[in-house]
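Researcher: Good morning. I'm working through a list of sequences from a screen, and I'd like to move beyond sequence-only analysis. For each chain I'm collecting a predicted structure so we can compare shapes side by side. This is the next one on the list. No need for commentary yet; just the structure.
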Amino acid sequence: MKLSNIYVLAISLSLAFACSQKQTQEPIQEEINLMIKSEKVAEHNGQPVFHYVLNNGTMQVELSNFGGLVHKIITPDKNGNKENITLTFDTVEEFLTKPNPFFGATAGRVANRIAKGKFSLDGKSYELARNNGDNHLHGGVEGFNKKVWTPETYSNDSVVGVKMTYLSVDGEEGYPGNLETTLWMELTTDNTLRIKFEAVTDQKTIVNLTNHTYFNLGGVKRDVLDHEFQFWADAYTPVNEELIPTGEVKDVTGTPFDFRSPKNLGEQIAANGEGFDHNMVMKLEKSDEMKHFVQVKHPESGRVMDMYSDNMGVQFYTANFVKDFQGADGKTYDKHWGFCLESQIWPDAINHENFPSPILNPGEKYEHTIEYRFSVEK
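Model: Good morning. Structure tokens for this chain:
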């Protein structure tokens, strides 16, 4: 594919650190290079699609304005070896033409499932596409993951990022109201991938946005059953056979969902059956507080990922439906080769009065921030 419109912005920062050796201190200079690289790689529906590389000298994040997606995250292991830790495709064409389990995507207008593709607002019924059996999933047939967002790069002395905007018109995929959505995706000097969402509407509607990256801290060489997970969650929402919440909010005590102390994923999956595709209850009410949701460790590589969010739940998905899937770099992904931590309002919330509300009114602003913080343990 021919590449054009290459744009690079680099910022060099010199940070001084002090270390102590035998009661003496010697300053050590470590240089951090913040860089954005942009390449036009395709067009879709007459709109340009760009591939972005955000680099801070230690790690890099690759993004696309197609689907507002995270393409790759390349981080060092405990020996300094850098590898991609996400499930993805090589090219934009593959995202357009292959069956896609939402690799890295922005999911919306409403992420997760809505039972029977139906909901009501003020006595008026709305019907959405049923694109997951009898249910609506991640915004429908052409959700936000298949839209070309309008991008703009930005930077300062601590972050490099891409701001993306998308207008979802009234009636799109069956949802009411013109919804203006803004997405910021940025890499910081301290190895944090920060994702921020905002949305406003001109009619009463429902909104629940998230990112759907599949992680594999081992460098995507095999399944993630050797990863260790800790969730700061005391409850979860059980589901029926169609993975729709029953409406119950259940204590995790005595269940395979109890990750309040670090647990080996393989052992927990063995106790639970096929895997996890469930909402872990992190908060009962929305607040601006950034809460530590999850810590994931891969002992072999030493990679650690800590997830923080100001939302109320996180959908924990262990790639149960990924099988013999041709992904990037010549790799074939299989069951449990990745995991998703989808920060969001609880699934099917509009149809459960005891769940947090996904309703957005005119004059209000939907806001949601996720942080994935990366480090290593030696």
